[in-house]
Amino acid sequence: MTTITPVRLIRDRATWLIYLQIGTFATYLYGLSAALPMLRVDQGVSQAVAGLHGTAMAIGGILTGLALPWLTRRIGRRAVTWLGLAGMNAGVLLVMAGTALPVTLLGYGVASGMASITLYAGMAALNDHHGPAGAAAISEANAVGVTVGVAAPFVISLAAQTALGWRAALLLTPVLTALLALTMGRVWMPGREDAGAVTGPETGARFGWRFYTAGAVLFCCVALEFCFNLWAAKLLADQTGLPGAVAALGLTAFTLGLAAGRFAGARLALWIRPPVLFVGALALTAIGWALFWLSRDPALSYAGLALSGLGVSLHFPLALSRVLDASGGRPDQATATASIFAGVAVAVGPLLLGALADGFGTQRAFLMIPVLIGLAVTGILVSSRLRA
Length: 388
Known about the structure:
CATH topology: Growth Hormone, Chain: A
Shape: globular
Oligomer: single chain
Number of helices: 17
Order of helices and strands: HHHHHHHHHHHHHHHHH
């Protein structure tokens, strides 16, 4: 039997605030991801050097992940989420204004690091606020995020083909942040989330093997997603002959799959056992990757990316839910540690794929994807069997 007793997900104004904060976060993430191939051309650097922007994103995420428990104790989750959005916009504007490699690396790092504290503080708040429906709320938050974020690569692709240039499209993120602050700046969740974030009976305790296995699965999933985010447009251009600005729309197909999958996943997470749903999502990603990897036709390549996005859509929500479930009631410590796992994945995955692409070609480098899928499935099955 693969179903569980359904639970209700109640979407109050506080829930919608976090959903829309994650949506604003997504415009930064997919915007800077779609901009990377064009930034590489502007700077005249290799794929491996361009991949350092992913490393900068990872370093930013790791540093703020280490600081997140302290920040949450000092100022609470509400202030942390808004502080993260402010810093994220500072990084985006730095990339928009800068042309030199050190400046854009700094911009990617600042944007990523500050954005990650908004993401992980928001996920912990949703998990606490919704209890048994926490996994569904996390999935739906990411669905809303992708739905909003999908506009970013589309706007960047269009702007790149006009006199404005792709950099002007990065203003989308600060504009949306300002609108959200003006309309919902006073909204937040009932008090128990911040109270529980300050201290706990197990604050200094160590996590067990289940937690670190869940963290390893999260690492594989984040590395996989960022490899698609940062390099799928390059492979699409190589295999189909499309110009870079048009190939950037491949990320739109991928994010449309993400959006559809996360909305569906929010419902499926209420009915299907998480390990079964997780393995199924990884299998679907493998099918989409194979179609994209083998195709030289633009339509089939877009279809493969959309199918891959549909599978990837559930990876992060389910992986993060596993981390929180294994945390022993310490969500803020768990999400901080999860952000470090994710940061290292962002550093290692795209950089390694870029280096492999320089040496062996982008198509062969994308064989990393099924390897990461296999490792993630192994981690899920092993931890589920040992727990049982």
